[in-house]
Amino acid sequence: MPLSDHEQRLLEQMEQALLAEDPKFATAMRGADLRRRYRRRAVFAGLVFVVGVVMLMTGAVTQVIALGVAGFVVMLGSAFYAVTSWRRVPPADAAAAAGEVPDISPGSPRRQRRPKGPRNNGSFIERMEQRWRNRRERGYGQ
Q1: The Cα angle at residue 20 between residues 16 and 21, in degrees rounded to 5
Q2: Can you list the alpha helix ranges (DSSP code H) found in the chain?
Q3: Is the model's pTM score more than 0.70?
Q4: Which of 45, 93, 100, 142 meets the CB 3.0–4.6 Å disulfide criterion with 78?
Q5: 21-65 confidence digits (pLDDT tens)
Q6: Which parts pass through the membrane (predicted)?
Q7: How far is CA 66 from the centre of its chain?
């Protein structure tokens, strides 16, 4: 539910008063931008990936197998770190830009992954048998 203009002005005044009274606390409560943090992690992982490629190629050229294997492991680890960091990035939609907290409660539309509908009756084997019967009746199996 959006705030009215009067409520928004009051909230801004309260924030300014808090910032003037205790700037350290206000900065800590404001928090950091999650998108920037995760983007920084992904860039760091990309740089480490490049270091892993250099290690791998150096190990291949100098025929030091341990260095090549270590480079490959570094590449895999950094790629995993980048992918897991990037998947956690919150969306940059209007609600996030406006400072609203997204609703991810169990009943919210954003939380639901598949539509709620009638489930398939019967087990997997029964459905396969029904499909087989349908094919036989239509003459596809001959």
Answers
A1: 115
A2: 5-21, 23-30, 34-62, 65-87, 94-97, 124-138
A3: no
A4: 45
A5: 887 777 766 666 667 778 888 889 999 999 999 999 999 999 999
A6: 42-58, 64-83
A7: 34
